[in-house]
Amino acid sequence: MTEAAPVAVTGGTGFVGHAVLDALWQSDTAVQALARKVPGDGRAHVEWIAGNLGDMPALERLATGCSAMVHIAGLTNSTDPAQFEAANVTGTANVIAAMKRAGVKRLVFVSSLAARKPELSAYGASKARAEALVEASGLDWTIVRPPGVYGPRDVDYFEMFRSARWGFVPLPPRGASSIIHVTDLAQLLVTLTQNSPATSKHIFEPDDGRTGGWSHKELATAIGKAVGRPVFAPHLPEAFLLAGARLDGLLRGNKARLTRDRVGYMSHPNWVSRSDRAVPENVWTPTISGPEGLQQTADWYRREGWL
Questions:
Q1: Distance from CA of residue 241 to its chain's centroid?
Q2: DSSP class of residue 156?
Q3: What are the two backbone dihedrals, phi and then psi, of residue 144, each rounded to the nearest 5 degrees?
Q4: This prediction's pTM
Q5: Coil, helix or strand for 50?
Q6: Is the predicted pLDDT of residue 179 greater than 60, yes or no?
Q7: Which long-range CB contacts under 8 A does 128-136 form with residues at least 24 apart?
Q8: Are strands 176-177 and 270-271 parallel, antiparallel or unpaired?
Q9: Residues 35, 25, 291, 148: is their CA dihedral positive or negative?
Q10: Domain topology for 7-149+180-209+272-287
């Protein structure tokens, strides 16, 4: 029996990437993964390749001999908007070039719902440009635009969990968004590494199965329930968030979590995954509901001493 070719993964040391490596291990799939610094985590099924998205020799080594590429790596937040172009656009162009040189056809590209509204943020604009490169690549591609991704190890939604512990969760202007547990997203990405007419050259917007998504206040209330506290969750105007971004920049410098760019898309009222972009049910369906996943996540934060 011929051993199956490995799957290549960029961003394997990140939040989503970590879950994808777990899902590939559970499916008994070998992995070649790119990392700036090779971790010593003892994953026997992973061959780590040192490099980054600007390192063409490393990207070619990553792609060589693989059946598919799951491109997760990218920049999601920065105090310097110009950095999004290098990481998300040029980085994706480099991945495509490396795949072509290595003869790898299947590309699963992790984008963002922010790409729907590129005028709102430099991040969203960079993801939209990266999507255009993928669509024009001539590869057998699938683009996934995750909504808010949460779960163990996540540092973004953790801010809401930590705030909820004190009974206060500040919210952006009124709106709604979809969410997805990282384990469900990882399983989807692994499933998509197998070519199928139902998934090839499609853009998908997965979610947790909740029709219409979550209003910001509903999500804050659910997180409060997960940590065992009722919460006061006021909506803050965009001007207040921009002032907060300036303050965060002064306090944390280039490590600021709230940036002007993030305020741009946080203030948009609709980040709900669209039903006409749903993954076909015979390909994938979510298994972790919002309430269940939020509770699991809160429990993990407690066990690990984050809360």
A1: 23
A2: T
A3: -115, 125
A4: 0.95
A5: strand
A6: yes
A7: 129/85, 129/88, 129/89, 130/74, 130/88, 130/89, 130/91, 130/92, 131/203, 133/89, 133/92, 133/93, 133/96, 134/92, 134/96, 134/107, 134/109, 135/201
A8: parallel
A9: positive
A10: Rossmann fold (3.40.50)
Strands (E), the chain: 7-10, 31-35, 46-50, 68-71, 106-110, 140-144, 148-150, 176-177, 179-181, 202-204, 214-215, 270-271
Six token digits for residue 110: 């992790």
Residues facing 8 on adjacent strands = 32, 69
pLDDT at 291 over 80: yes
DSSP state string for 167-226: TB--B-SS-EE-EEEHHHHHHHHHHHTS--TTTTTEEE---SS-TT-EEHHHHHHHHHHH
pLDDT the model gives residue 1: 32
The confidence score (pLDDT) of residue 247 equals 81
Name the 3-class secondary structure at 112. Answer: coil
Calculate helix-pair angle for 290-303, 216-227, nearest 10 degrees: 50
Contact 79, 121 (CB under 8 A): no
Name which of 1-5, 74-78, 105-109 the model is least confident about: 1-5
User: How is residue 70 written in tokens?
Assistant: 């799951």
State the Cα torsion 215-202-30-39 to the nearest 10°: -50
Per-residue pLDDT tens digits for 50-86:
999 999 999 999 999 999 999 999 999 888 888 999 9
Residue extents of the structural domains in the chain: 7-149+180-209+272-287
pLDDT digits (tens, 9 = 90+) for 261-281: 888 888 999 999 999 999 999
Q: Decide: 121 and 83 in contact? Cβ < 8 Å.
A: no
92/129 Cα distance (integer angstroms): 10
Closest CA to 87 of 96, 79, 99, 76: 76
Q: 25: part of which helix (H) or strand (E)?
A: helix 15-26
DSSP 8-state assignment for residue 139: S
